[in-house]
Design goal:
The structure is a single chain. This protein is mostly beta strands. It has one helix at about 1-20, and strands spanning about 25, 35-40, 50-55, 55-60, 65-70, 75-85, 95-100, 115-120, 130, 145-150, 165-170, 175-180, 180-185, 195-200, 205-215. The chain starts with a helix and ends with a strand. The radius of gyration is 19 Å and the shape is globular.
Length: about 220
Amino acid sequence: MKSVLIFLLAIAFAGIANAQDSKSTELFNGKDFSGWTFFERGNTDPMKTWSISDGLIHCTGKPTGFMCTEKKYSDFKVTVEWRFPTNMVKPINTGVCVFMQDRAADAPTNSVWPNCIECQGQHDHQGDFWLQGGSTCDQPPTQGKNGIKMLQPSAEKPAGEWNTFQVICRSNTVEIIINGMSMNKITGCNNSSGYIGLQSEGGPWEARKVTIEPLQ
C-alpha cells in the first residue's frame, strides 16, 4: 500500500512540474515596457511612437522601428491580441518578428530590420512572411525578393475588433495562425532562436496581450 501511495504521489508531482514547465508568461504586464527594448529609424525617441494607457500598448506606426524582448527564445508559441483602431482612414501595417538577431554594431541608423523572420501584420496580409536582414528558409519567395505569400484567404477581423495573432516556432520552423486559422508555414530557417519583436511600420495599432508559451 505504501509503495502504491509513493507511486501516485510521484505521478502527481510530475504532473505539477510539467504544468509549471508549460506555463505561459505575459510579456506585456499592462503597466510599462519592462522586459522590452526599442529601436527607431534615425534613433528617434521611441516614447513618441510607443505608449501605454488603459492597459493597452499604443503604437503610432511612425517612424519605422520595433520594440523587442530583452531575452531570446526558442521553441515557443507567442500570441499577440491586437487591433487596428477605427479612427483611421484604413488599417495599415505592423508585424511580429521572430528569431530576431542583434543589430550589427556598424549598422546605419536608417537601416531598420536585423536578421529576422517577419510575420506580416499588414491589413489583409496577416499570414505573409518576409525574410529580413539575410534570414533564409527552404521555401522560395513568392512575392518580391524575400516575401512568401500566405496560403489562405485573409482571416483578419475588421478594424476595431481584436485579432488573435499566433506564431509557433519549433526548431527552425515557423507557422502563423490568425484567429485560429493556420495561414502559412516555413521550414529550414537559418535561425532557431532569437528575440521577439513588434513592428512600428506605417500606421497605428493597439495590443492588449503578448503571451509566450514554451513548446513541449
